[in-house]
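Example 4.3 (complexes with small molecules)
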Amino acid sequence: MSLSGKNAVITGSTSGIGQGMARALANAGCNIMLNGFGDADEIEADRAALAQEAGVKVLYNGADMTKPEEIDGLIQQTNADLGSVDILINNAGIQYVSKIEEFPIEKWDAIIAINLSASFHTIRAATPLMKEQGWGRIINLASAHALVASPFKSAYVAAKHGVAGLVKVVALELAQDNITCNAICPGYVKTPLVEGQIADTAKARGISEEEVVKNVLLAAQPTKKFTQIEDIGALAVFLSSDAAENINGSIIPIDGGWTAQ
Ligand code: NAD
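Answer. The structure with nicotinamide-adenine-dinucleotide bound is encoded below.
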């Protein structure tokens, strides 16, 4: 499936799932604007390696997804430096696990800002560009937690359910502009985000980390397998293709059957 000549911006693509989707889209021929935090030398090495591996342009912008003006700058820089914003993938996200009555207010605010409001800001900025060129793909990395809840994740589950709502509204508004908007909803994927969560959940529930993996994380996934980053990358490439032109407003689980229950 070729995305040759297309330009994509992927938030939170210096790690985990975002990095995997950047690799998948680049190897399908798409130029990439990376974004996210991390060690500057490592980000530059990864950027150069991906450009070399895929033979496409790979750029980087370190916009902070809690800052609306920096988010607008990310979209405008992508348009200026790559020539268009064809594909927008909202992926940056953080997690925090705590009982509701002890949930730190600043963690609630940060999760809502990064996991939900940032998607509003990117979509708001990219939509006029996509409308003008008459083509666009908007993909949001939501979660199985956009469809179902788990205890101790009030902010995350609220944000991801919010993303599902935003996706449906945007899909309806842009349905006749040749622009689609969808959500990918993975179950558990072994990335730094989940590795941190294993320790936090063990603490919150008073059980061992092994028990968290077996009895909490994969307990919900009937296949008993973590979702693979490469599989999410392949789905993002498909949703970005012309073949997916009539997939719009869909909340797509890739969760081993978790939300079928
Ligand atoms: P990760 O921690 O490996 O990567 C998160 C990325 O977001 C990093 O590049 C980080 O630098 C970036 N980021 C964090 N705060 C930012 C900010 N303020 N501004 C800009 N970038 C910021 O996590 P991941 O597991 O790859 O998660 C990616 C997305 O997938 C998230 O939205 C997450 O909720 C979702 N998701 C993950 C899982 C899972 O099991 N790992 C499951 C379902 C959904």
